[in-house]
Amino acid sequence: MCGIVGAISDRNVLPMLLAGLARLEFRGYDSSGVALASGSDVQRIRVAGRVAALTERAGGAQGRRGIAHTRWATHGVPSEVNAHPHLGGDSVMVVHNGIIENHQALRAALTARGYAFSSETDTEVIAHLVHAELQRRGNLLAAVQAALPQLQGAYAIGVLARDDASRVICARKGSPLALGLGFGEQYFASDIAALLPLTQRVIYLEEGELADVRCSGIQVYGADGKALARTARTIDVQPEAAELGPYRHYMQKEIFEQPAALANTLSRALELGCVPAVFGPTADEVFKTAPAVRIVACGSSYHAGLVARYWIEEWTGLPVSVEIASEYRYRSSTEADGTLVVAISQSGETADLLAAARAARERGKVQLLALCNVAHATLTREADLLFLTQAGMEIGVASTKAFTTQLAALYVLGIALARARASLPETQLAGLAEWLPRLPTLAQGILEVEPELEAWAHELSHDANALFLGRHTLYPIALEGALKLKEIAYIHAEGYAGGELKHGPLALVDENMPVIVCAGADAVPDKLASNLREVMARGGRVYLIAEPGCEALADGAHRVLQLTQPAGPLSALIMTLPLQLLAYHTACRKGTDVDKPRNLAKSVTVE
What we know:
The protein is α/β, with parallel strands linked by helices. It contains 19 helices and 25 strands.
């Protein structure tokens, strides 16, 4: 959630640290800071604010090695004193992403040894602990190696010491960290976005590993202290992928990138014919014998899983359960041997999701399928089967193209499962697959209605609440539409299955309640019609988004967006796009920070 950047060079590292932080601001941003060192001269600069404020305060500061951080508050309010880096003793600087669960016990022990704490954070205990070990061992590498086993919880850390000018140390456990290899200078960061302008040669630290980072190179050590031989990978993400271009916000850019993202995501599946092999060489046998499907996810990915349940159950007859990862990991359950566990994540580093996937392995002999947008993420490395979405870099906190590419991948999964199990005639499977190559064109057509949704947004921006309704696969899309409006426009919104309206939410409906309705030709429109009459009879303002075949529902609606092209079984995916545009333009009307909504971070790498 927080952003970490570190570098060592024979030139001033401040510009590269600040540029890296700016690229990571979408991960967490309530405070920021940097520590710079040249020889034995160390300086620390921190602000309770964003990277622009840190850049202004840093001015012309100089340093040949440094660590930098943008913070998303967990322990302690956003403030300069709680901002990273934290000082250990009088000479150690630490930045940290994660949560140290035994920080109170460590704080008490270090206080008893004479260490004074100036912040409310759990991170400060790491700094003092490393300092204490440094006094005993006289070597920063040995000090960090001795300190790490004493920490309980999750961490990605960067450490520098005043009296060790030759190196910077970094380590990870439960939070991501990548090393960047340069020529005569080396780097590390919590996200490769920070490294793109500097290098495309990357080593991903594995769980429990530590790196000794020097100008001449990087040495990786395992949790047992033994040196490891690691080979760098060349990443193919170009620096311009993180540039805003002509768009007003990253979210708008990413909404309009969806046709291309969908085409890229589906290219291999269409080439192979939506066969199980798309998910891995063993997928055919796994799919044939799986007794059930368990989907685990968080946030928007959870909503994608809810849509997939309709597809998979209808096409295969398999029982499908969809679990919120943070709930699944803490409840008792068993998994039947052979269960296909589908873990969905944009980043592949979400703490709750990784814990849920590992818990599933402990509860039965399951097969783990990762559906992820990052090729070398922790989730993808731990999975038995894999489908990589090709959404490209997503910077806006509110998921857009990552969500729709997940839906596309799950649709392919449903077809592949049905094909492996011979649960549908081949002609019917071919009919389902025929919709996929049309997706990019259908998505492009939806984006052309943006001006009409801007007019809707002008009205919604004056409302404090909203309801979203849908049925069948459009019920999870109602949940997703409500989430988007909450995330970026700060309007209280709830999504409901249409049939649930009379079981409570109808009490909220009056002339001040906008009701956004998703109507699909295959989503029981006749039943939805009665739900709309219930709303209109109570003065509610109905904003209807309707597929062809649902024209009759428009009678009496306040606003109607009539889609011109049917999307068949993929209407859930296509219906997502107007809801994204509606939320985006409502947020713009309200003047909120669209790409960096308050209190949220892009990748939730702590509980």
